[in-house]
Structures are given as C-alpha cells and as structure tokens.
Design brief:
The protein has 61 residues and is mainly beta. 8% of the residues lie in helices and 21% in strands. The protein contains 1 helix and 4 strands. The strands form 2 sheets. It has a two-stranded antiparallel sheet. The protein has a two-stranded antiparallel sheet with strand order 3-4. Strand 1 and strand 2 form a beta hairpin. The two termini are 14 Å apart.
C-alpha cells in the first residue's frame, strides 16, 4: 500500500483466517486480518508496527 502523502509504502492487509508461521517455525494466533511487515524495520516482526514511515521504505519502481 502506498501512502503518497508520506511518500512511503506500508504493509499489505491480508484477510481471511490467516495462519502465520515465523522463521523459527513457531505459529502465531490465527487472525481474520494481519498486516505483515514488508520493510524489515518492524520491532514486531513478522507484523507491521509502522516503522516503514521512519525508515522511508518504498516499493516504487
């Protein structure tokens, strides 16, 4: 998702009983909506915590 006002790219919203498994193999609670981190700067990985704004992450070509 692009936030053109801030010039950054945020997470993708994923819906529908999403099962998330971490890199260590640990499973997270199944939720109806999740926002996975795409910038790599989140302190709450694998989920977005808004760090993309401070890091200036963009996926623009």
């Amino acid at each position: 998702m692009q936030d053109t006002a801030k010039g950054v790219s945020g997470p993708l919203w994923v819906r529908g009983g999403v099962e998330v498994v971490g890199a260590d193999g640990g499973a997270y609670e199944v939720r109806n909506r999740v926002a996975p981190c795409r910038c790599g700067a989140s302190a709450n990985k694998p989920f977005c915590d808004g760090a993309h704004v401070a890091s200036g992450f963009t996926d623009a070509h």
